[in-house]
């Protein structure tokens, strides 16, 4: 799966190398919630490794992820975890049983990993923003919904705002990583927007510099910023320290957008990340929220 980077979404979290949508082991996380959050994280990180690590081909990765998906269904039925991946599924099953985690959200994550492998193997593009958002619905939004579930926040406005934040984080990662993804055959600039800007698939795939292509990137960044600001009021609905962690997540995403937008479309050739020097500004902005 296409991951969000530490700089864009795990600002308040312990540094990790995979699946940084999860604020794992953060000092702001209530101790009682650390075990289920860690269980969810290790489940997603292991799926991420299956999807991206090593040199297996696409069919082998898909077969492995299907076996992983079957193992999830196995424990969801209350059966003991299989020996394979037991270290992942034993704590996850305990979290599911204790916290009544919605298994469909966990399954959605695997389906997104599988879709990403398919798309990349075929060098396929997304048709439009709705198709891209459907990918975000399964690749990113489950993260926020699972965390809200643990915090007992389940009203419709909060869920919608969480989806907006998580989709924004995923989109931000796309626009931050264009210089890395396009050479790898991952295309997130969708066909409808490219056609509206009169940009051919070849020009996009070859990153042929033009004012139109740079403007398209800026439009995508503006779209992600609108989504993030739409979801930002959620910080006032999430209780206690978690609300402060969420403020930092939001500000981390917005800070990456600042840097993408400052490049004026050149993230097609350059990648910007958050560094230690960005911390004071992000903390100040989080406090002002």
Automatic annotation (TrEMBL):
EC numbers, comma separated: 2.5.1.21
Entries under InterPro entries matching the protein: HSQ_synthase_HpnC, Isoprenoid_synthase_dom_sf, Squ/phyt_synthse, Trans_IPPS_bact-type, Trans_IPPS_HH
GO molecular function: geranylgeranyl diphosphate synthase activity; squalene synthase [NAD(P)H] activity
Keywords: Transferase
An annotated GO BP: terpenoid biosynthetic process
Class in the EC hierarchy, top level: transferase
Annotated protein name in UniProt: Squalene synthase HpnC
């Amino acid at each position: 799966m296409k991951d969000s980077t530490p700089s864009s979404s795990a600002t308040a979290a312990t540094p990790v190398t995979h699946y940084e949508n999860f604020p794992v082991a953060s000092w702001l996380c209530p101790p009682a919630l650390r075990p289920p959050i860690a269980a969810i994280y290790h489940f997603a990180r292991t799926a991420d490794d299956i999807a991206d690590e090593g040199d297996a081909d696409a069919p082998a990765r898909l077969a492995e992820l299907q076996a992983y998906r079957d193992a999830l269904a196995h424990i969801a039925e209350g059966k003991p975890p299989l020996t394979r991946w037991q270290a992942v599924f034993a704590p996850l099953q305990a979290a599911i049983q204790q916290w009544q985690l919605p298994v469909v959200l966990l399954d959605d994550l695997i389906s997104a990993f599988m879709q990403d492998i398919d798309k990349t193997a075929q060098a396929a593009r997304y048709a439009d923003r709705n198709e891209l958002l459907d990918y975000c619905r399964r690749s990113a939004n489950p993260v926020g919904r699972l965390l809200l579930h643990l915090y007992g926040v389940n009203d419709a406005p909060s869920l919608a705002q969480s989806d907006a934040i998580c989709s924004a984080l995923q989109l931000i990662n796309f626009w931050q990583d264009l210089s890395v993804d396009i050479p790898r055959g991952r295309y997130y600039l969708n066909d409808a927007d490219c056609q509206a800007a009169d940009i051919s698939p070849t020009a996009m795939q070859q990153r042929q510099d033009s004012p139109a292509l740079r403007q398209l990137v800026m439009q995508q960044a503006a779209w992600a910023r609108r989504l993030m600001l739409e979801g930002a009021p959620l910080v006032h609905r999430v209780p206690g320290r978690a609300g402060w962690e969420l403020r930092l997540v939001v500000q981390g995403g917005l800070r990456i957008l600042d840097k993408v937008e400052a490049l004026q479309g050149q993230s097609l050739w350059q990648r910007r990340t958050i560094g230690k020097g960005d911390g004071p500004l992000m903390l100040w902005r989080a406090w002002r929220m």
